[in-house]
Amino acid sequence: MYEKNGEKYFVVDSHMHYWNAAPDNWVAGAEQYAKGWIECFHAYQGLGPPDTHWPIEKFQKYSEDDLMRDVFDDGHVDVAIFQPTYLTEWYKEGFNTTERNAALGEKHPGKFIANTRWDPRDGDAGLKELRANVERYGSRGVKLYTAEWRQGSRGWTLKDPEAYRYLEACQELGIKNIHVHKGPTIWPLDKDAFDVSDIDHAATDFPDLNFIVEHVGLPRIEDFCFMATQEPNVYAGLSVVIGGLMHARPRFFAKVMGELLFWVGEDKMTFGSDYGIWEPKWQVEGFVDWDYPSDDAFSDYPRVNAATKKKILGLNAAALYDIKVPPEFRLDAGEGKPAAREDATLAPQL
Amino acid sequence: MTATLTGEELLLAALARVRDPELDEAITSLGFVSGCTLSAEGVAQVRLRLPTYFCAPNFAFLMVADAYDAVSATDGVRSTEVILEEHFAADAINQGVAARAGFANSFAGEAVGELDRLRSNFLRKAVLAGTDQVCRPLLAAGVDSVELSSLRLGSVPNSPALQRLRQRRAELGLPAADGDWLLIDPETGKPVPDDAVSLHMIRARTTRVSIDANTGVCRGMLRHRYPDRGVGEKDEVTT
Predict the structure, then answer these.
(1) pTM greater than the 0.90 cutoff
(2) Which of A278, B15, B90, B112 could form a cystine bridge with A243, CB 3.0-4.6 A?
């Protein structure tokens, strides 16, 4: 939790990791990819405040103590949601698997939610594994990488019939939240990995599932916005948006937030630190203090207040995951009604 | 005054016409050119660098291929070498471009088709973003949406933003002459109806924000990776 100016914020970090990308976990023959991948992540950390940068050695493999301190003791987070990333072609035990995440979660009851993953190209074996993971780890959400290039396949889309089998299985197994990585990619090649139109289809056909688009489709925020505004069950996952822009490019950050608030709305935006890329502490504190710059370029965006930030930092994700929020953190009746879309106009002149 | 330019300056001028298709900005001003030399014998050597090891190889390929074409066509250049540095697909891209193999052949078995559609998709985004750039000062000066939809390109005060917009439209084969409408659908080239102007302008704004934000991230990553400035690099202009 975080408290500022008498306002209390319940914080759900809906997108974070516990990885091992140190040389001891590199697959022989794929060292350059394993090394390049973690160095690329490390460069993203460079977009945060200088006093939060880590040396590459710590960044490759941080400890359980580091994580518990950075996320919970110092980082104000109440509940953190693991989003696994396998990358087993490069990392012997995976980059951060459901199993590795859940093992840490089991030591700290109530602190973590361990999401799992699936890939429709795994067929029946993958469905079996999904069932086993849900049974064993109680996963309520999954993280999907549609752009992942594998064994001659150049990625997949949520529209694929095979993917629909998995989405049906999710419904049956009680998985509600489908986090889809639509952002900077691993092997995009000719495949249009940023395309978000598949989410549009799946969200329409599976109205009981929630689709959280992580990284809001960067570098195509506009395509995401135009799609999300039409789908009640599509959410904006703010990982990378806050971490990558709020400190490094504050004016662009304000504009991106303004666009998301306008098109998607404050009820459908969720905070994610993307730890270990960025520590949550400066993101939570900075976001609570944040408002638009005062000049005219921002006057046409929806306004933000403490209720807006309470929802984005925790209440929205808590609702998605049925996390019990203590009464002092909830919004009062009538509080937090988002500004109607009509209130936001292009410019006073129009 | 071409005669007063050195060989490097000529090459740099050629490279300044090569854009990152996703960011719609010159690779020189973005800081992507790390080296650029022209020998007395006419051997041009260009080195390019990108913000990350894993930058999308399709865009990387386009930039290397475009740089190769621009440099090869420069006066006094007899042979051209363009090297993309420190990228996971550098070998495939460098060899593919040098052999004029095209994208699909350079990534045999991994890629299907060339990148024209990808390029034109992003060019259409650039047109939309450029529309916001041109129209924002007009809106601030009191032009309303009805007037906006009645404007033609030739009746808008000239500016670098307008020239850029017209150039992008011309590249796509969209109407770009003085007598053509200022507001057009970037897919079809048809004028935007009065009742669709507000939404069109909001979409234009969102598209510009997206490109600007992405450029900001790329520039930040590049600086983290390479503290030294690129040849011809320019600082971003924030609005």
Answers:
(1) yes
(2) A278
